[in-house]
Amino acid sequence: MSVKPPPDRLYGRQKGKSLRPRQEWLLAAFLPRLSWPAVPFGIVPRETWLEVGFGGGEHAFELADKNPDVGYIAAEVFETGICSLLSRIAPDHVEQPEPPANLRLFTDDARPLLRGMADGALSKLFLMFPDPWPKARHAKRRFVHPELVAEVARALRVGGEWRIASDDPTYQAWTDEVLGGQDVFTVSRVTERPEGWPGTRYEAKAVVAGRVPVYWSLIRKS
Questions:
Q1: What is the per-residue pLDDT for 3?
Q2: Rg (Cα) of the chain, in Å, rounded?
Q3: For the whole model, what pTM was predicted?
Q4: Handedness of CA 167, 151, 187, 55 (dihedral sign)
Q5: pLDDT, position 138
Q6: HSE on the CB side for 105, CA within 13 Å?
Q7: Minimum mean pLDDT among 48-52, 86-90, 118-122, 129-133: which range?
Q8: 185-190 sheet: strands from edge to edge
Q9: Average pLDDT estimate for 97-116
Q10: What is the pLDDT of residue 178?
Q11: Which of 28, 99, 123, 187 is 20 to 30 A from residue 87's alpha carbon, by CA?
């Protein structure tokens, strides 16, 4: 597969509609209290997990909440999504919210973050319903990319898992092609969400619209 390497630059929107006062406060005052890597975990994590592009944050919030001994880094650049996750952590009725000890947010491009991680630093990586960048000339912008597959493999420990989900036919075909050209992961592919995979709002919208999501589980070989 011949495609240009992914550049370390952000594409697409980072800002959406005007923020409400509460959202502005969350970004200005609360986000710095759980911003990775400036603020370390408040625990010594059993494992470290990374989610790339957490969207509305429901997936990251549920997994971090159900696995309090795991250090969870949730990466997203879109302000509305960041505010959505912050609102889950610090709902309006809580006057003095405290950041969870095991959840940290990274609000920049996740690719340099991944490259800066030590070999085998991660036990799980999640890529849930990413922007498909459907035009062929935009293929270099996709996170699933031959060069990044190697980088994910380096950062994952042996036996670690990379989960991918997409409802977009172009991205599904692209992912199948990229994964078919690698030999560092054992790959399983299903069309029903596996047990233990929290749902997302994007997944729900896709199902209502009649699109069929695909779920890949990649296990790092020795």
A1: 60
A2: 17
A3: 0.91
A4: negative
A5: 72
A6: 29
A7: 129-133
A8: 103-106, 70-75, 47-52, 122-128, 156-166, 214-220, 185-190
A9: 96
A10: 96
A11: 123
Could you tell me the two tokens for 107? 């609000």
Cα separation of 18 and 24, whole Å? 9
Report residue 15 CA to chain centroid gap: 18
- Residues with a known catalytic role: 131
Quote the tokens at residue 37. 């890597």
Return d(Cα 143, Cα 110) in angstroms, integer. 9
pLDDT score for 137: 79
The DSSP call for residue 35 is B
Query: For residue 168, which of 143, 187, 196 has the smallest C-alpha distance?
Result: 143
Rounded Cα gap, residues 106 and 117, in angstroms: 14
Strand partners, 185: 220
Over residues 99-107, the mean pLDDT reads 98
Q: Is the dihedral of CA 125, 113, 158, 62 positive or negative?
A: negative
CB 191 within 8 A of CB 216: no
Determine contact, residues 152/162, Cβ cutoff 8 Å.
yes
> Of how many residues is the chain composed?
222
For the record, the structure tokens of 203 come out as 């997944």
